[in-house]
Specification:
single chain, alpha+beta, Aminopeptidase, 2 domains, 8-stranded mixed sheet, 9 helices, globular
Length: 246
């Protein structure tokens, strides 16, 4: 059994909690850095995702890395604490961020209905600046341009006007779902996500996303579309730019 299959076998014991690791492994878009009885560690571009069985194992796995990763996804609270400690403790960690999330995944096989009120199509680079201005969580024009270039940024149009957008992040999650204020409460978000779910189904993949705790509107949307939620959070973390001392 190779490392990828070994990692999948272990993570499938709790598939919903680890959907953000499992899907990249199934799609062969992640590199397995470690797969053992004490944990799993994968890399997707600049992001490290990890599952370990204890704080000691979490520290061992993190110490295998040549440097502190730009982004780290911890699947246990003690992994979050170990990562923060390696970043220099609470004071130093203020330079980074911590987003606790629940995973949501569409586990059914039936496509979702998509409102015919909107025209949904791939977006081109001419929309990149506007998307970057409108999106509320971060300001990263090069990333938006890269996702558009990858062909995974879609917009919903009403009477020829862009009403909202959604993309697929590098790790495969549905994300950056945003509706312009004048089009809110018109079903734009439901149409965009249902369309994204159906594209995943057609490709033989599981559609999944991360929901930051406290985002009640997103939780309501996932419930309305029939997505299943994980029973405990995972944590998206950034430690800023410090270098780990060996």
């Amino acid at each position: 059994m190779n490392l990828t299959d070994k990692a999948i076998a272990r993570l499938e014991q709790q598939p919903l909690h680890f959907i953000d690791i499992l899907e990249p492994l199934h799609r062969r878009t992640a590199q397995v850095l470690y797969a053992g009885e004490d944990g799993i560690q994968i890399q997707i571009h600049a992001t490290i995702m990890q599952s370990s069985v204890s704080p000691q194992a979490a520290e061992r796995l993190l110490n295998r890395l040549p440097r502190i990763p730009e982004l780290f996804v911890a699947h246990e609270s003690y992994e979050k604490e170990v990562f923060e400690h390696l970043c220099g403790g609470a004071d130093a960690f203020e330079a980074g961020f911590c987003n606790p999330c629940l995973a949501a995944a569409y586990l059914k096989k039936e496509p979702l209905p998509v409102s015919e009120r909107f025209t949904i199509r791939k977006l081109t680079q001419k929309y990149a600046q506007d998307i970057n201005k409108q999106y509320h969580l971060f300001d990263d024009l090069p990333y938006i341009q890269e996702r558009i270039q990858a062909g995974v940024f879609y917009g919903a149009f009403l009477n020829g006007e862009l009403a909202g957008f959604i993309c697929e992040h590098i790790e495969g999650t549905m994300g950056m779902l945003e509706v312009y204020p004048k089009f809110q409460r018109m079903g734009v978000a439901s149409a965009l996500e249902a369309d994204a779910v159906n594209r995943n189904l057609a490709a033989g993949r599981t559609a999944f996303c991360d929901i930051i705790l406290g985002n009640d509107a997103s939780f309501a949307l996932q419930k309305s579309l029939g997505l299943s939620l994980s029973d405990r959070p995972h944590y998206w973390l950034s430690g800023g730019t410090p270098t780990k001392e060996n």
